[in-house]
Amino acid sequence: MVMAPLPQPWPHWPFLSLFLILFSCESNLHCRNGVEATQRVFLYPQSPKVSSIVSKAYRTGYHFQPPKNWINDPNGPMYYNGIYHEFYQYNPNGSVWGNIVWGHSVSTDLINWIRLEPAIEGTTPSDINGCWTGSATILTDDQPVIIYTGADTEKRQVQNIVLPKNRSDPYLREWSKPKNNPLIQPVGPGLNSNQFRDPTTGWIGPDGLWRIAVGSELNGYSAALLYKSKDFMQWTRVDHPLYSSNASNMWECPDFFAVLPGKNNGLDLSAAIPNGAKHVLKMSLDYCDKYMIGVYDLKRDMFVPDTILDDRRLWLRIDYGNYYASKSFFDSNKGRRIIWGWTNETDSTSDDVAKGWAGIHAIPRTIWLDGDGKRLLQWPVEEVESLRRNEVNHQGIELKKGDLFEIKGTDALQADVEIDFELTSIDAADPFDPSWLLDTEKHCREADASVHGGVGPFGLVVLASDNMDEHTTVHFRVYKSEQKYIVLLCSDLRRSSLRPGMHTPAYGGFFEYDLEKEKKISLRTLIDRSAVESFGGGGRACIMARVYPTATVDGATHMYAFNNGSSTVKVSQLKAWSMRRAQVNVKKG
Ligand code: DQQ
């Protein structure tokens, strides 16, 4: 075991002075992965600032991305006849948002992908200005269909469908547009024709009719508008939305699905839904993916959330980092629900132009409902484990306040790390202040890894340069609120790169945890060159982040477990693996 006790006291650790510098650098920028980032007007700089070596160093080794150009939202994921399909918003002409078509890749394992020609391009009046986000549905006669938003000749948002030209082609390479597109127009009182997009996967109601929901702005409020159809061709708007809220004014990329508390087997919304199942409505807004848990009232044909929170800052989040426009599907192959999300770059637009690419998708995650029915849990699909090699294994490492333990023997640039932190005592947990929930990023900045707590901070330092002047921390703190324990997961990027102009927030999310019963908190982090994707407390809080350390270019980075709380924590189990490079879109099919 290689244990490097920190110089005591902790403030002498190089972190601290750097953290102090950081406070003055923090900007008010929020995640730059929302529509503001995608739909702003880009100017191509004359002289790219990033050398080609940098571009190569930051390309991920096993996350989903095409060989070049811009991508954003995952579209229409599905499993059909033994093949997984991943479509995505793609600019074939450059590494900024624009000229959007549906890129298309196929896989048998969700990790290695074959790149195909774009599946949908703007060729008709109803999608000539862009083929935007949508979903796939497999109809009752095993017929796949995609419904997507087109920006029409007048730049109104309309809903179109495409069908595979040849269902016996295993890759469903070519898709045709029926003559009757657009199937749904943005008509009706109060509907904003520029805020009417991103149809969900269809589901069948008890009356045998298909339903979809479309993200909209209705009378200035956000709504998931409900449409019904007998044949998936002719659609009628239901007189009430599936759900709407005046706490926001537009929802992008709604997703509606059923989940069973405590069971990680997924449900197909069109199949019989077992008793005790709950429903989830996910929506993308404020540069984040948020969700509500509730029930689907079949009589009223409406989603009814268990809890209504007027302040949308308090809504639960799929991910507390850089993760947007996610879409889930039922994987009939393994009986699970899988969710995909888009992670934008957080370097500059000129860097993206110089790199020649921008945007990745997070590792597909299995998603299910916690046993108490209050929170979704997520975990990387098991297939990603096929990339693991060179296992490093440690048990029983005691981390006292200020200890730092180097995890050696893995490729710190491309790794998968799983740690169980056993809490020797939770008595010293600091009191919880509910106002922190309104701005978790602020709290992660203020209570960063250099600030001692009763229980925590403890966690990982990743992508650290030799002298620690670049590093990213992923760490927990434990708080006590009346009879409950509340855990904070932070991913602090403020020292992630010495390169100027990067967006480097300190992301954070809270979750309740029965620490009297559990006694330990797990952390899993997937490190992939410029991606740091973390799953805290068995997937109760997830944080996806992008980082651009200069140390990556030199190929020398380190990884540590640490504790800086008064209570000793024990690493009861630590496993780390180097990750092989996956075959992601290197071949054309
Ligand atoms: N991206 C698409 C829209 C969607 C947005 C356009 C979300 O359909 O609302 O590329 O990132």
The secondary-structure class comes to mainly beta
The low-confidence parts are 1-50
Helix content: under 10%
Average pLDDT metric: 91
CATH class of the largest domain: Mainly Beta
How many β-strands, per DSSP? 41
Return the CATH architecture of the largest domain: 5 Propeller
Overall structural domain count = 2
CATH superfamily annotation of the largest domain: Glycosyl hydrolase domain, family 43
Task: Give the overall shape.
Answer: globular
Under CATH, the topology of the largest domain is which? Tachylectin-2, Chain A
Strand content: over 45%
Number of helices: 7
Small molecules held by this entry: 2,5-dideoxy-2,5-imino-D-mannitol
Query: What can be said about the biggest beta sheet?
Result: 8 strands, mixed
- Please state the CA-atom Rg, rounded to the nearest Å: 23 Å
* Terminal Cα span: 47 Å
